[in-house]
């Protein structure tokens, strides 16, 4: 078998694929740049944004707020609108204590599968319940599952006025219920200045335990815990 011949053919096919699809690849990459998808703050400040998705939970969100208060740390809660309707007390408390409330849709669908009207309904219904309970319009949005497409981004940023926020490389998948030590060790050992850390406040008791290790350990290293908007505000200065 002429391996050299097949190798050259494979290279040619790969090159042809890139040339044909380069516009699509580059367009996808530019989503982050052009449409302001935020994954971290790249200015190397020793600030971190803890974010909690899918709440509020009737018990666990309050426990997380207790830990944050204990260490004078701020965070951002990307809430699901129907959960806010069911369990408003923790959202009200979080807002009063200086944490940020972000929009995470009303029912937690994959927004990349929705029509324009369905997407707007999900965003607006969540926005309205947040405003009803806190008196403040959310400024940041996180798509459930991290799924989105260019059409979604255009509607969110241009029509609805949101900054779309994902997260940095540290994703401990706490919804899979790893141990508190696994959660804390992965974050402490891998975190970088300006990171946005993805956690959950719905059905994640081990996350609460881990926070009692993560926050003081990183504070001793000089890190400060801020909201996403505070992190982005410093990035834009």
Characterization of this structure:
The chain is an alpha/beta fold and 237 residues long. 51% of the residues lie in helices and 13% in strands. It contains nine helices and eight strands. The strands form two sheets. Strands 2, 3, 4, 7 and 8 form a five-stranded parallel beta sheet that branches. Strands 1-6-5 form a three-stranded parallel beta sheet. α2 links the parallel β2 (47-53) and β3. α2 (60-70) runs parallel beside α8. The chain is globular and about 45 Å long. The N and C termini lie far apart (61 Å).
Note the topology.
Layout: H1 3-34, E1 37-38, E2 47-53, H2 60-70, E3 75-79, H3 81-86, H4 88-96, E4 100-103, H5 116-134, E5 140-141, H6 150-159, E6 163-165, H7 180-190, E7 196-200, H8 205-220, E8 224-225, H9 228-235
Parallel strand pairs: 1-6, 2-3, 2-7, 2-8, 3-4, 5-6
Helix pairs in contact: 2-8, 7-8
Salient structural properties:
alpha/beta; 237 residues; 51% helix
Structure in a nutshell:
This protein is α/β, with parallel strands linked by helices. Helix content is 51%, strand content 13%.
Uncertain runs are 10-35
Rg calc: 20 Å
Secondary-structure class: alpha/beta
The count of β-strands is 8
Tally of individual helices: 9
Cα-to-Cα separation, first versus last residue: 61 Å
Average the pLDDT over all residues and give the rounded result.
Answer: 85
The sequence of SSEs as H and E is HEEHEHHEHEHEHEHEH
User: What is the beta-strand fraction?
Assistant: 5-15%
So what's the overall shape?
A: globular
Helix content: 40-55%
Classify the oligomer: single chain
Major sheet: 5 strands, parallel
């Amino acid at each position: 078998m002429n391996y050299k011949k097949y190798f050259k053919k494979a290279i040619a096919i790969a090159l042809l694929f890139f040339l044909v699809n380069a516009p699509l690849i580059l367009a996808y990459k530019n989503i982050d740049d052009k449409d302001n998808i935020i994954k971290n703050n790249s200015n190397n400040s020793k600030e971190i944004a803890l974010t909690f998705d899918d709440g509020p939970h009737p018990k666990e969100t309050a426990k997380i707020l207790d830990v944050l208060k204990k260490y004078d740390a701020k965070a951002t809660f990307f809430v699901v609108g129907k959960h806010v309707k069911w369990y408003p007390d923790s959202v009200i408390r979080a807002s009063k204590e200086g944490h940020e409330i972000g929009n995470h849709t009303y029912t937690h669908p994959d927004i990349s599968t929705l029509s324009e009207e369905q997407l707007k309904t999900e965003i607006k219904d969540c926005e309205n319940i947040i405003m009803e309970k806190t008196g403040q319009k959310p400024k940041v949005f996180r798509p459930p599952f991290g799924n989105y497409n260019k059409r979604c981004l255009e509607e969110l940023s241009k029509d609805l006025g949101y900054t779309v926020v994902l997260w940095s490389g540290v994703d401990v998948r706490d919804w899979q219920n790893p141990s508190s030590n696994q959660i804390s060790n992965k974050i402490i050992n891998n975190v970088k200045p300006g990171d946005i850390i993805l956690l959950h406040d719905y059905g994640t008791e081990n996350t609460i335990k881990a926070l009692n290790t993560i926050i003081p350990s990183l504070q001793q290293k000089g890190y400060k815990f801020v909201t996403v908007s505070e992190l982005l505000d410093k990035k834009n200065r």
